[in-house]
Prior knowledge:
The complex is a heterodimer.
Chain A: H1 4-34, H2 42-60, H3 64-91, H4 95-117, E1 132-134, E2 139-141, H5 142-164, H6 166-176, H7 178-183, H8 188-210, H9 222-235, H10 240-261, H11 266-280
Antiparallel strand pairs in A: 1-2
Helix pairs in contact in A: 1-5, 1-8, 1-9, 1-10, 2-3, 2-4, 2-8, 2-9, 3-4, 3-8, 5-6, 5-8, 6-8, 9-10, 9-11, 10-11
Chain B: H1 10-30, E1 42-48, H2 55-74, E2 84-90, H3 95-107, E3 112-115, H4 119-130, E4 136-138, E5 154-156, H5 161-178, E6 185-191, H6 194-206, E7 213-220, H7 228-237, E8 241-245, H8 248-260, E9 267-271, H9 279-284, H10 286-289, E10 293-296, H11 304-315, H12 322-341, H13 346-354, E11 370-371, E12 374-375, E13 381-386, E14 389-394
Helix pairs in contact in B: 2-12, 3-4, 5-6, 12-13
Amino acid sequence: MLSPTILIPAVLNGLLIGAIYALVALGLTLIYGVLHIINFAHGALLSAALFAAFFAFRLLGLDPYVAVVLLAPLFFALGYGLQRFIIGPASHGDERNMLLVTLGIAVIIENTLLYAFHADTRTIDVPYAFRTIDIGSTFLAVSRVVGFVAAFAVALALWLIMTFTDTGRAIRAVAKEKLGAELAGIDVAHVYAVTFGLGTACVAIAACLLIPSYYVNPTVGDAFVLVAFTIVVLGGMGSVPGALIGALLIGVAESLSGLFLGESLGQIGIFLIFIAVLLVRPNGLFGARA
Amino acid sequence: MPNQGNPLSRRQFLATTTCGVAAAAIGSVAMPSVLRAQGTPVKLGVLHPVTGALSYSGQQGRLGATLAIEEINAAGGIKGLGKIDAVLGDAQSTPDGGTAEVEKMNSAEVACIVGGYASNICLATTQAAARYDLPYVVDVGVADSIVTRGLKNTFRFGPGFGVISKTALANLAAINDQAGKPAKTVMIVHEDSLFGSGLAKLLNAQLPQQGFEILETIPHPTPTRDFNNVVLKIKAQSPDLVIPANYFNEYVLLARTMQQQQVKPKGIYSVLGGAASSYKFVKEFPDAARYIMDCNHWFDPRNDKAQALKKKVESKDQFFTYEVYMNYSCVYLIADALERAASVDRAKLTAALASSTFSGHLMPYGPTRFVNGQNEGAAPVNTQVLDNDIKVVLPSAFANAKPVFPRPA
C-alpha cells in the first residue's frame, strides 16, 4: 500500500479532485468569505450550472469548454439578479435572514430541477472523455488536468480583479466597512450583487469543467458544498489563494485517507486537517486577523 | 448592522452554520411530500426514495408502480373495491425519511404500502409499518434481514441476498469452469450501506468455497465523487475478476474510471450491479459496459406483457430498468390480494398476501409462494452486455445468448 506506484498517483488524483473543489470554493469564498453570506444555494446553483452545461451540449452542440464563454456571463447575471432582487431585499441586511433566504432558494432550485428534469442522472459523452495523459505509473484524465489548470487561471483572474480593479477595491471596502464604503459613494447593494454574480459565474465555470468527467442530477451539487465550506474556512475566509491551496490540500488529504482508511472514511482526513490547521491558525491558512 | 467592518469570526460562523444546518435538516424533514390524492376507496402507499442519492432508482420504481395503478384503474379498478388511489411518498434516500412517510401513510389510512427500494430503507419502513399491522410489499430491498425478523406484515416479492449470492456464485463457477477456470483471484468493490456490506460479507464467506481467492474488499460511500483510488488499488493487485456491488451512479463512475485507467480484468462480474443490467448505461457508455456480466433482477423476456410494458416505458423516453417491472409486478400482486380479500382490512389483506399464488407478473418466478414473507419462487438471472444489448446468459431456460468469458482482448 505504501508503494510509490500507488502513493504518487493517489497524491496526483488528490490534486486533480482538489482543483475541482477549488473551482467550487472560489465562488463561495467571495460570497461567504467576503460578504459573509452563508450561501446554502451554492450547491443548487452548481447543479443548475451542470444542467445548463449538459443542455448546452445536448441541444446546442456546445462543448463544455466552449459553453463556459456563454454560461459564465449568464450565471453572473443570474447571481447578480438573485442578490439584487431577492436575497438583498428579503434579508434586510441580517445575516441569519440571508442564510434562510439562500436555503429557500436552494430548495426552490433543486425542486424546480427535479420537477423539470426528474431525478434521472445524465452524462455527456465528449470525444476526450476517456483521453488520458500517461505519466508512467498512472493515467491522468485529460478533463481533470484541464480542470486543474483552469482552477489556477480562475484563481489568478479573481485575485487580479480583487487586487487591481475598482470593482475589487469596492468589494474589499464593502467587506471591511460597509457604512464607510457607502459614505464614500460606493453603491453597496450593487457591489453585493456583483460579488454574488462573480461567485455564481465561478460555479458555472466549475460546472463546465466538471461535466466531461462527472454526471448531473438535481442534487449533485450537494456533494461538493460541505467540502467547499470547509475549504473556505481552512484557506481563510475571503482569501482567493487560500481557497486554492486549501482545496488542493483537502483533495490530497481526502485521497490519502481514502487510500489508507478506506473510501468510506475518506472524509475523516478532510476534517482532521481542518481541525489541525484551525488549532494552529484559527483564521485559516491565509486568513486575515479577526 | 452586524459585524460591520469585521470579518466573520469562527464563533459566529459556527453559530450561524449550526443554525443553517438545523434549518436545512428541518427543511428536509418538513418538506411537503409529493402529490397526495384523497378520498377514493383503496389507498395504496407508493414509497420510494425519489430525492437524494437514490433518486433515479426511486423515480423508476415510482414509474413502475404508477403505470400498474393507471392500468388497473383504466380497467375499472379492483373488483368489488373500486379504483386505487396512489398515496405517493418520498423516502429522501434515508431510512428516517422512509419511516416518516410510513407514519403519514398510516395516518392517511392506506391499505398497503409498496416500495422502499434500498435495503436500509426497507428495513426501517417495514418495521414502522409493522407497528400498525400495515401490510408492506418490499419491491427490491435484498437484505435477508428484511424478512427474517418475524414481521407478519412484510412480504418480499423479489429474491434476497441469500438466494442471489448463491445463484451468482453457482453461475460464476459454471461460467469459469466452462472457460477452463481462467479466473482465480477476485476484488470486491461495494457501497457501504446494508445492501453492499451485506452482499460483500456473503461473498467473502462463499467465494473461497468456490476456489476463488479474494485479494481485497473495498467499501465506498454513496455518493462517491471519485473512484481513481479504488481503481489504483485494483490496478496494483491485478485481480482476474472485479465484483462491484453498488448503486447506479457509482457503478457508472467506477466502470468509466476503469476504462479511463485502462484496467481490464478478465471479467467484471457484478452481483446486483447498479448499472450492469441497465439499458441506460449500455446506451450511454457502450465501451465501458461491454462484456460486463451481472446476476440481477430481470424480467422474463418470453412474457408478452413484459415486452409490451417495455415498449410503453421506452415510448415515454424512459429506460426499462428492474425497478420499473419489479414495482409494476408488486402492484399487481397487491391488487390480486385485495381482490381476494375483498376488503381493505389490514388483517384480511395480510392473510390474502400470505396465501398468494399470483402468477400474472413479469418476472421469471412462476407462481408466488410466500414463506415467512419471502417469495420462494423469486430468483435472479445472469445477464451480459453483448452487441450493445443486455442478453440473458443463464439460466439456460431463459437465455438468449451464451456467456463470453474471459473478456476478449
